């Protein structure tokens, strides 16, 4: 088989993974909350830390029209945004956490989940087009006063979009960044109370997750998060999802370096050698489990032999990068790994 994460049906995902992989830096834990610090440059341990798990106090942010993002960049609006168009799942996630909804989106399956907007998600118009090549005319039709996209992907739309609305591009390197963007968007929308409630809930879930993982011995259980269809890739510890998983499980999947085609390219043989006991798969187009079900090497992987391979919803595990998504992913991962 060819090694590497080749282009399959999920074009949005592959483009997003390529962009995020380029931007990712090694992360380290902040001991007080068991969270990552994207600015330390310290190597990430392969297993969770036995750090204090008491959540830090959370304060509600104050309304502001100039905010600083998690990477130190400032962003300014002339007025509080009332109509936000989301071109990336982090935007939808943060808005829902703040008790709001976008006026248009590119991730309708995420919004329509029962733990997001449910049936009301179907009422949100969908912006057509490829990831990074969305239909600007349709964005304009939504009459936004703010458009939120992904850095490295939607910058190319800036000239066209900013003829009618400001464009804010976000970049998530860790779930701490998700918290940072939640706080910044809460400032812009004057939703400090909702931000404090959502952030408190998420920090408590992280602390509880660390406690549960250690109590159940999951911090010593090899787990794998991967993606693909007829070809596969691994969410390594330098990928935001892989790093998140490494906080709660034994996660022996470092980046292999190089470009996108090599950094996350693990063969079935290499996966077998690391013997994961639980596997979470984001399948695009073709089910990875179905495609490899007759592969003799795949069958020998402990998770496969034990029936502990789980196909997970891509709209959440691949597109969701906000505090709500990570909280739901954590609950699902802990429950399945402990079962």
Automatic annotation (TrEMBL):
InterPro entries: ABC_transptr_periplasmic_BD, Bact_iron-sidero_bind
Keywords linked to the UniProt accession: Signal, Transport
Domain called Fe/B12 periplasmic-binding: residue spans: 83-339
Pfam entry (one): Peripla_BP_2
UniProt key word Ribonucleoprotein: no
Coiled-coil residues: none
Top-level taxonomic group: Bacteria
Subcellular location: Cell envelope
GO terms classed as biological process: iron coordination entity transport
Cellular compartments per GO CC: outer membrane-bounded periplasmic space
Primary subcellular site in the record, as a coarse category: other
Family statement: Belongs to the bacterial solute-binding protein 8 family.
The protein, known as: Iron complex transport system substrate-binding protein
